[in-house]
Amino acid sequence: MENLEYKIIVGLEIHVQLLTKSKMFCSCAISFGERANSRVCPVCVGMPGSLPVMNKKAVELSALAGMALNCKIAKFTKWDRKSYYYPDLPKNYQISQYDLPLAAAGFIEIPLENGQTKTIRITRAHLEEDAGKNLHTTGNFSQVDLNRAGTPLLEIVTEPDLSSAAEVRSLAVELQRIVRYLGVSEADMQKGHMRFEPNVNLHITKDGKEYKTPIAEIKNLNSFRAIERSVDYEVQRQLDEFSRTGITMETGNKTTRGWDDDAGKTVLQREKEEANDYRYFPDPDLVPVEFTDSWLAEIRAGLCEMPIKRQLRFVNEYDLSDYDAGVLTAERTTADFFEEAVKSGGQSKRVCNLLTQVGLKMANEANCSAAELGITAENLAKLAKMADGGQISATAAKTIMEKMTQTADEPKVIAEQLNLIQKNDTAELEVIVEKILAENAKAVEDVKSGGKKSKAAKGFLLGQVMQKTKGRANPKVVAEILERKL
Amino acid sequence: MPRFFFWMAEVMSKKIDAELVKKVAKLSRLELTETEVAEFANQLSAILDYVEKMEQLDTTDVQPLAHCLPISNCLRDDCAKPSLGTEKILENAPDTDGDFFKVPKILD
After folding, report:
1. Do A279 and B67 touch (CB under 8 A)?
2. Could you tell me if A55 lies within 8 Å of chain B, comparing CB atoms?
3. Residue A418 φ/ψ region, left for φ over 0, alpha for ψ in the -120 to 50 degree band, beta for the rest
4. For domain B1-57, which CATH number applies: 1.10.10.10, 1.10.20.60, 3.30.565.10, 3.30.70.270?
5. Do B27 and A83 make contact, defined as CB atoms within 8 angstroms?
6. pTM passes above 0.95
């Protein structure tokens, strides 16, 4: 195949399910996994005479997300009907926002692999209702479950500013962090709380001329990995197609392609010859939303430090690696917990290690956040101090932390109970060292002879002392004594 | 300008002929006989002629109307209430399959 020079162009359409108790325009509860059609009312099915009423929380969460995405929040926004005929929306239209979206003209900063950040422009973010689910049976019919119909969704549209599969993934991860930080969404991809639809095409340079491949919109992506893989696949597919057929945006049509995760490829679903005629018009059943300054200020109070800023601050303020800072700031409660423990006197790197190496593992097993393990920030700080002061070993700290989830006892009490306080008493340790040296004349000789063997022999002797003390000797102190004696 | 009004403008500039009636009928999933197509073309043209009179008004300083009532922010608190329940909601369905509405096979 010829070697073509090309640029990858990706824009995203993202649907985020808002974290509300009830639906967008009626009081049916939000559901996942309930009995089919059990959370449906006359408004959901659009029965004559039923009227939608807006969910205030959904409007506020949307505005909050818009603010976090640096958007301008419209002072005046309204509802439009998007007409289409599909059984998952029995009204034959979806309530959405067309020409006056709730939020517009913002941006999101995403971290790049090289440690820098990139700004991706947000075109708009608007509120709309979700459709129900069509289930395709083996028979000659389809089944419809309307439990999901009417669930509030925030649709976010980006400019085509993304230029690699890794960047698309990075944006997805960052957006998930943001909406979770703000409590705007649970953002569980497996449950469909976040749905990403990348629009992908290439600008190819060939013989000094630029060609644009037809845009493909990818659907059915339910993991970050799938997002990245699908864009990578699509880039290669479009390159191959262009080389083979020379079809461009002008000569070909926009397509919709579904991601097949098992096969690892995108499959053609639909080819659009013309734009859909949705015949948007203002919904007469719903009055507009007007934001007053005081209402906006109230919503704005819900903003917090954005995860990417916090991560950077953790690196600078607490001297952590970018990786560790990323792990700690992935969840807001974990980051808060970490900062509380540091404020209570824990050394930042030690607290970080305890949290990332022990806390998050336990949290994962218990299916909760590290802050919910039952350990107080004060006790975590105390534990960190003990480890730093050499009163306990790193291994012991791990054991004690595990125990701390089951009892409110202070780490010192637990350490004593479990007999994990390190021996720092030089005089006592010296006696033990003497004994070990006497018992291992060969090793002592090896150390003294120098060279490669010397280092191994030293390690061996240290190990013997640790064994003798059942791991409770402070290895630092033992090493010092050994150094002196040999 | 909202797309709907573009569409209206397109319709108004064209005048309603049989072809346009058929297009609108298709978008609305309506089946019309040829007689009806001719009849509706006349009726719709008459309506649009009437609406066209408004074009004579100077609307330079008039804001587009989002809603006919001068009110906004009719909101409710986020509280969940019981739904109708599967049995009841399916009572009005033309056809069902277990707990589901049954519809002709959908091809994506």
Report:
1. no
2. yes
3. alpha
4. 1.10.20.60
5. yes
6. no
Task: Report how far residue A70's alpha carbon sits from residue A245's, in angstroms, rounded to the nearest whole number.
Answer: 42
CA pair distance A267, A265, nearest whole angstrom: 7
B72/A142 touch (CB, cutoff 8 Å), yes or no: no
Question: Does the interface predicted TM-score (ipTM) exceed 0.90?
Answer: no
**CA–CA gap between residue A171 and residue A227 (Å, rounded):** 11
- Do A318 and A280 belong to one domain? no
Structure tokens belonging to residue A173: 């991860």
In a domain, A239, yes or no: no
Instruction: Decide if A469 is inside a domain.
Output: yes
Using CB atoms, which residue from B7, B76, B100 is nearest to A55? B76
State both tokens at B1: 């300008």
Chunk chain B into consecutive blocks of 10 residues (it has 108) and report each block's average pLDDT, rounded to whole numbers. Answer: 50 72 86 92 88 84 83 93 94 92 81
> Which residues in chain A are contacts of B100 at CB distance < 8 A?
36-37, 135, 143-145
Contact B75 A54 (CB under 8 A): yes
Q: How far is B64 from chain A (nearest CA, A)?
A: 11
Find the helix or strand (DSSP H, E) in which A136 lies: strand A133-136
Return the half-sphere exposure (C-beta side, CA atoms, 13 A cut-off) of residue A79. Answer: 23
**pLDDT attached to residue A151:** 97
Mutant choice from A143, A260, A271, A291 vs B, greatest count of B C-beta within 10 A: A143
**Domain presence at residue A1:** no
Amino acid at A467: Q
Contacts of A302 (CB under 8 A, 6+ apart): A60, A64, A182, A183
Whether residues A378 and A446 share a domain: the answer is no
CA distance A355 to chain B (A): 36
